[in-house]
Amino acid sequence: MGRAPCCENSGLKKGPWTPEEDERLVAYIKEHGQGNWRTLPKNAGLSRCGKSCRLRWTNYLRPDIKRGRFSFEEEEAIIQLHSILGNKWSAIAARLPGRTDNEIKNYWNTHIRKRLLRMGIDPVTHAPRLDILDLTSLLKPAAAYYPTQADLETLRALEPLASYPDLLRLASTLLPAATTGAAAEQTQLLLPWLLQAQMAQQAAATMAQQQVTPPPLATAAEQFLQASTACQMPGLVHASPTQQLAQQPQDHMAAACHGAVQLPSYDNQLDYVPALMQMASDAFNLQQWSSTVSSSNNNNNHNVNSGVSTPSSSPAAAGRMNSSSTTTTTTYGLNLSGDVVITADDDAGLLNRHLSELLDVSDYM
DNA sequence: AACGGAACCAACCGCTGTTCA
DNA sequence: GTGAACAGCGGTTGGTTCCGT
Length: 365
Prior knowledge:
This protein is mainly α. The protein is built from 14 helices and 3 strands. A 3-stranded antiparallel sheet has the order 1-2-3, with helices on one face. Keywords: DNA-binding, Nucleus, Repeat, Transcription, Transcription regulation. InterPro entries: Homeodomain-like_sf, Myb_dom, Myb_TF_plants, SANT/Myb.
């Protein structure tokens, strides 16, 4: 023998709540508490299903609910928590005081999700979307329609980039602008350097996993690698970081990343090429050094990344955060305790906070 | 001013795990 | 132990508002 039926479906009101109904529900709960949702509407004199009453109370009438726009900190927390918890809105809401799961869900679907898509980030996996990038766009425009043998060779040379989203974005920004003259020659030279830099980046991530402190490195290359890993270089897709920021002043994520990216400010995108090549060269030195270190530390893998990927971090970034004591970029990731950590450049005056208490997700890991 | 599409959000629906008779 | 109701959750819907033409 089970329980008695919950409520008759017939005769119960549906749809938007009136102020009078709200008043009755609030007054009843203030006096008697929530109690049994099944019996509550009858006792409160409401022609509503108990489920509807519970929803109205938890999502709208509760006195501790915070209304109004989401703050920057809340938005960042939502993105980070979503990257870890997925669509577990109630779990996310539990870590954002005053916000309901329904509100967070709506905000995600109407604001954050679209913004991530615009930035070329998959809102489900929080990884860069390679499907929206086209290798043929890396050729000069006419070549996409009438490719010569040389163009096809170039395309073939670019193929390895498909495995490296950061560099693919960077190349897609730089290469189409360089069709003639010295700039074109520079960008042709850039390709192998980009690949080397990416390899060095991966080697650095491996080192970080092995808890090895790297030797002093040229700061420009360090910043370049950190910036590219921390921010997935969203601002380099169609515009320079400064241009991107100007176009989306409300894009806090981009702003945070911009604070970390300390590339020289050039008017022409192609002017970045020599600096980037120098950075790649420095990174290559790191790669050579790290290959010797990693070969001697293969048995020391702490697996700090735990497969977690966030919109603004890569495994390399998460690993770097754990290995380096001098973090100068905005990075997100998990430390060895499973705590979510957000750190940022002090000079930028942005985030420099440890959210382990607020974002305690250890029970969901 | 009128219209249509986009954006927003409160509320509902249906499912699942838990509780209880 | 069983099965039905409960409570809670995530996905979806539909009404309202906003905005551009």
